[in-house]
């Protein structure tokens, strides 16, 4: 990610060789500040409070948390305790469980004296893999944007609507839904992005900040504006991220995504979901059983006597999803589409 003249990732090993450095996303877009995480508990807190957020990034951050935990207690019990603590931080993004399962499996046979170093190696590898997956998603999604530009014709910018933040900040670098946008923009495809504000945590402001750093034209709109813009013909394509994809192609993403997909379907606007394989839950047949995180009422900023609910995600049924943009290409949202790209998952 480009910030001024410097390229950053969202997480990396500190100069001391063992702490985890992060960009504290609760300070953005007002302040670009970094934080140093030195313990398992600090990593768990950073995920819970959304200092690091976005499905792929919380998976990788959890890996760094395991490495830090094992410096203090490399026993089997220490590993189990760390996995349990991190797994309980945020329930919807499957990337977290995917990462923790991978650590648990890899580390179980490793002698305790070597576990912390091995865990850090794996965390760094997972960070690199995430960057590579995002770059492949960028290439796959760029073709969709080029196609939309051809349809728009006459050099008119393609109007893309996105929800939440599925960019640099939600991954280790590049993003999922925003990666094709950066790549197409860099290749000269004219683009403009409608950015949903994404109440209550306003991740749309993170998206706007990123797009501004990269020079991509964009406009922030309130969450309820999308349907209006679509009806007026001012949206060519929707592109969002996901926290969990079920085998039938149902996708969980930030609350409000479902409404955008409904509006897109009514207006015959393609609705694409960028989905790295780390977000596919091969154990879930449908999206019905995806756990939806309920966050604190205070996030809404309303008077304390007001009764509120704060579900953080919703599920968009596969029938409303035009396609999934994965690191192996674009496919239909459903079992056959997924298995065509990931044949190793065929039963
Ligand atoms: O609550 P958040 O900010 O972690 O939610 C993030 C999203 O919903 C993203 O769209 C999703 O994680 C995909 S990020 C590549």
What does this entry look like structurally?
The chain is α/β, with parallel strands linked by helices. The protein has ten helices and 15 strands. It has a seven-stranded mixed β-sheet with strand order 8-7-6-9-12-14-15, sandwiched between helices. Bound molecules: 5-S-methyl-1-O-phosphono-5-thio-D-ribulose. Residues 53-56, 93, 164, 166, 170-171, 175-176, 203, 241-243, 253-254, 312 line the site of 5-S-methyl-1-O-phosphono-5-thio-D-ribulose.
What structural category arises from helix and sheet content? alpha/beta
Portion in beta strands: 15-25%
Which descriptor suits the 3D outline? globular
Q: What is the percent of helical residues?
A: 25-40%
Question: What is the succession of H and E elements?
Answer: EEEEEHHHHHEHEHEHEEEHEEEEH
Number of strands: 15
Bound molecules: 5-S-methyl-1-O-phosphono-5-thio-D-ribulose
Biggest sheet: strand arrangement: 8-7-6-9-12-14-15
Oligomer: single chain
Average pLDDT across residues? 97
From the N-terminal CA to the C-terminal CA, the straight-line distance is 39 Å
Unreliable residue stretches? none
Offer a concise description of the structure.
By secondary structure, the chain is α/β, with parallel strands linked by helices. It has helices spanning 40-48, 55-72, 76-87, 94-107, 112-152, 179-186, 203-214, 226-231, 257-266, 335-341; strands at residues 2-3, 6-7, 11-13, 20-23, 34-37, 158-162, 191-196, 218-221, 237-240, 244-245, 251-254, 271-274, 313-316, 323-326, 329-331. The chain has a seven-stranded mixed sheet, sandwiched between helices.
Main features:
single chain; 347 residues; alpha/beta; 7-stranded mixed sheet; 3-stranded antiparallel sheet; 15 strands; 39% helix; 16% strand; globular; binds 5-S-methyl-1-O-phosphono-5-thio-D-ribulose
